[in-house]
Amino acid sequence: MRNHKGNMLLVELTIVLLFFAVSQAIILQVFVKAQEINRDATLRNNALLKIEDTAEMLAASQDAATTLLSLGFVLDEEVYTFHSLDGFQINAALTRLTQPAGVLTSVELAAYQGEKMLFSLPALQYRGGNST
Amino acid sequence: MQRRGMIRSHSIQNVFVFLLIGLFALGSIALAISGSRIYGQVTASAAHNNDSQLLLSYLGNKLRAFDTSDHVIIAEQNGIPTLRLLETLDGTRYVTTLYAFQGAVWERFAAESDGFDPENGTRLVAANALTFSWRQENLMEIAITLNDGTTKTIRAALRTSPGKGAD
């Protein structure tokens, strides 16, 4: 009888501890998810800063291509690409529209995290005359 | 003999129960420690992101608002690097000064004729240093060192020429 009671206590304890163990596992998953979200937020923040900075540099520059190269972009199949150590990538697609009045350069800046596009920002630059 | 066996089995059960409770206690402690660490990291990082984004957006928008000829000046006052944004209201020249002082970025709005007193301003965001420089004639570089030691730099292209006193 006494032995039976002891076994019951053991089973009860095991069930309670199992329940807590499952709860711990769920909580741990939530923490890991929170850390991932935080890492993503930091990455987006840094990508946004870089993209805004690039757009401002382009607005003040005389030649968009030279400016992109000076900012660490690399020309790869007609698209300028910047790989950050933080884990994001910025692509800059450059198009030039030459008119007798001047040259309109439009740059489509897009930030990527792996294959996923985070956001894009268009930058326009107009130079009067026929300067490039 | 039988009694001896029962006592032995009972003590094994007790040890098993204590082992389970011990395991649970260890798991709980590990979870609490890792949880507090992750919570600390997340809040610190969120605060860092918010501070840097808020400050850079605020400075960028301020610059845009005052982006008229000779209204944006970089100057050093009382040994503090400052950004002076000038405007005229009802015939009086006013200056909005942005600077880092005592571990924070401050903004001070006063008449241009008033002397510069860094303590007589509004505290905006915690930051260790704030420096301004002209990278090109109309391209300003703003570097902010936050309290955790990280430095963020943004550049702002002005549509007009910088004011007198610019670096």
Explain what you see.
The complex is a heterodimer of chains A (132) and B (167). Helix content of chain A is 50%, strand content 33%. Chain A has 2 helices and 5 strands. Chain A has a 5-stranded antiparallel sheet, with helices on one face. In chain A, strand 3 (89-99) and strand 4 form a beta hairpin. The model of chain B has no long low-confidence stretch (mean pLDDT 85). In chain B, the strands form 2 sheets. A 5-stranded antiparallel sheet of chain B has the order 1-2-3-4-5, covered by helices on one side. Chain B has a domain at 51-157. Chain B has 167 residues and is of the alpha+beta class. Chain B is rod-shaped, with a radius of gyration of 29 Å. Chain B has one helix at residues 2-65, and strands at 72-77, 80-89, 92-101, 104-111, 122-126, 129-136, 139-145, 151-157. Chains A and B meet through helix 1 of A and helix 1 and strand 8 of B.
Outline the fold blueprint.
The complex is a heterodimer of chains A (132) and B (167).
Chain A (H helix, E strand, L loop, with lengths): L1 H59 L3 H7 L3 E3 L2 E5 L5 E11 L2 E12 L2 E13 L4
Antiparallel strand pairs in A: 1-2, 2-3, 3-4, 4-5
Chain B lengths: L1 H64 L6 E6 L2 E10 L2 E10 L2 E8 L10 E5 L2 E8 L2 E7 L5 E7 L10
